[in-house]
Design brief:
2 copies of one chain form a homodimer.
Chain A (H helix, E strand, L loop, with lengths): L7 E6 L4 E7 L2 E8 L11 H9 L8 E6 L14 E2 L11 E3 L6 E5 L3 E3 L4 E3 L2 H11 L5 E5 L4 E7 L2 E8 L1 H10 L14 H13 L4 H4 L1 H9 L4 H19 L1 H4 L4 E5 L1 H13 L4 E5 H12 L8
Chain lengths: 302, 302
């Protein structure tokens, strides 16, 4: 068995997952992930969780590790205090070094960003933004990172000018799995027409959202709404009110979406219907490119 | 100890609670409640649950029992099929008799109401509506029943003309207790000014709701938002978008609110600020008056 030796290790460490990439001169040599997210670790468990995943990639010397995400929050491994917008998404001088017992590790955490007014915060997305700017040099415009907590980000001249967070994915999970709407709602099936109609309705009349939700339950009970249509309509309604509230971000702009393929495709379709061109960037590629952009600050370390 | 003997028994049987009232010629003689709601009972557990609570009130003969709420749903004791609006809130001929092993009981269930388009359903509220009409003879206008699933109801000439359900209370519970907003959110404390400002903002700009929620978390992290203000603002935002969507119901109307005192007072205050007069009816009194209105259909039973 030939071992993989990493030049450095890129780490995306969120609330529920830990993902690590063994990086070589030409990119990713290997990747690994585990469920050792911040939510399941105490402070003294981080180093062991990292070694379980990335230990096989370490040589005898010191290997740089650059990590972004909730690992740098107050409840994480060590706090990497927020930087304040407007600012570049990454600043090499602001990486926070974490002491480790294992001398083969030289770990640095990427700080998140905060915006004073309207108050907002991000952790992890700043790295994807930096990656997007590395992949699209000179990009000026809007980045949208849909997901559990969707972010809309205005980028200009290499800086994050402003951003806003929407709890769309979390609302979808709560309403589809834990509310009265879970009755009569599919867990996987999809009805594209139901999604598109609901999304269009919610963008056009977001002020009606509070009257739209219980109808999913009522139509299931008395009007034969299918579980797939119920789930797709819920998703369309929630993405629709996000797009309605985010209108000042995307109106008349060019948008690049960063996230899961299917989700980004849904957002891109909705934006196209509003006359807004949108391109899609793969989330993992942005994360890795962002961590790579932060890494030179750590030289020389071995 | 002198026993209480009921002429009949009024029962409000919902998802989480069972409430029974021993009724005499002049009203309530005694009341009792338990956590034996529909959610914790199987079909063959209902009679025993009722006897545990109301057994002491039974005489040797047959005692009429009139019950409303989820007890009459498909997952309840026995299904009392929905009646279709427009219709009176109660119809004596539509009560559903439930066979019991104990011959002292003569149980009837009140059916809920359904509306074909927009699809909607209610169970339990129809009885409170009937009670409100008994307490306010000749009432024409709008009834609002705020709560887990708020109902707005247009009543005219003694009939329910239309209604609409809002998941406001359930959304508040999910977001305040199970979402990321639970961090930094009080469980009881209240900030009236924060509530009023959020409510006013949400009524005026409901299309911004998706951008307002995560700010509660962000302001807690970086701007010192207190847990009491966070909870009150969340409540104001959610009630505000309900009122915005329900505008066609209340605009230019007279409104009677049925529900918990503090909640009704909050809705009444918001409606007054919009120039809409609102009176408050106690929920239990409406339930009992509604069940009493249904009861004559069961004579003679003893």
């Amino acid at each position: 068995m030939t071992g993989i030796m990493a030049d450095w290790i890129a780490v995306d460490w969120g609330t529920t997952h830990l993902r690590a990439y063994a990086m070589g001169a030409n990119g990713v040599l290997a990747e690994a992930s585990s469920a050792d997210g911040m939510g399941s670790l105490t402070r003294d468990g981080y180093e062991a969780a990292l070694l379980r995943l990335a230990g096989p990639w370490l040589g005898a010397g010191t290997t740089p590790v650059v990590a972004c995400g909730m690992v740098g929050s107050r409840q994480g491994w060590m706090e990497a205090p927020y930087r304040t917008t407007p600012c570049t998404p990454l600043d090499a001088a602001s990486l926070v070094a974490v002491p480790t017992a294992d001398a083969r590790l030289a770990v640095r955490l990427v700080p998140g960003l905060k915006q004073a007014a309207p108050a907002d915060v991000m952790r992890g997305e700043e790295t994807q933004i930096a990656g997007a700017l590395a992949l699209l040099p000179g990009f000026d415009g809007i980045l949208c990172l849909p997901g559990t907590h969707s972010k809309w980000v205005q980028v200009s001249a290499g800086e994050v000018v402003s951003f806003q967070t929407y709890m769309t994915g979390e609302m979808f999970a709560l309403l589809s799995q834990q509310s009265v709407l879970r009755h009569g709602m599919a867990t996987k099936d999809w009805d594209e027409a139901a999604f598109a109609t609901a999304l269009s309705d919610a963008i056009a009349r977001p002020e009606k959202i509070a009257a739209r939700l219980f109808a999913l339950r009522a139509e299931g009970l008395i009007a034969g709404l299918t579980p797939a249509a119920a789930r797709s309509r819920l998703s369309g309604l929630l993405i629709g009110i996000e797009l309605a509230a985010a209108r000042p971000y995307w109106l008349g702009q060019q948008v690049a979406l960063i996230g899961a393929d299917a989700l980004c495709a849904a957002y891109a379709g909705a934006l196209h219907a509003q006359g807004v061109p949108a391109r899609i960037l793969p989330a993992a590629a942005c994360t890795i490119a962002g961590l790579a952009a932060a890494r030179p600050a750590m030289e020389p370390t071995r």
